[in-house]
Amino acid sequence: MQTITSNDFNPNLVPILSSFRALSDPIRLQIVELLRSQELCVCDLCELLSIKQPKLSFHLKILKDAQLLHSRQDGRWVYYSLNLPQWVILQDYLAKYRCLNPINPANACQD
């Protein structure tokens, strides 16, 4: 069996890791679902999610830091949309697991 240490960690996986961390919260998943079909203003997201603006801003920042969202300002309003290139990176990463070879059984443990 091959032992993997923290020194073996592939730095190319950092964007993947941050994306999965960002998506691990139910509120952030709801935000993503709402943004799947259209760009939305913060005020609309607050209303649709029934949460206050500071809480929403916290979650939007995490999604934006993970490069999952784009934002644009129009006057005093900020609009959010999905950052599609980052979603393609996630899709490509996960696609590798669709074509799995048969998984070998574990070796018997020794007492």
Automatic annotation (TrEMBL):
One of its GO terms (molecular function) is DNA binding. It holds the Pfam family HTH_5. Keywords: DNA-binding, Transcription, Transcription regulation. Residues 9-102 form the HTH arsR-type domain. PROSITE patterns: HTH_ARSR_2. The keyword Ubl conjugation does not apply. CDD domains: HTH_ARSR. InterPro entries: ArsR-like_HTH, HTH_ArsR_DNA-bd_dom, Metal_resp_trans_reg, WH-like_DNA-bd_sf, WH_DNA-bd_sf. SUPFAM superfamilies: Winged helix' DNA-binding domain (SSF46785). PANTHER family: ARSENICAL RESISTANCE OPERON REPRESSOR ARSR-RELATED. This is Transcriptional regulator, ArsR family. It comes from Rippkaea orientalis (strain PCC 8801 / RF-1) (Cyanothece sp. (strain PCC 8801)).
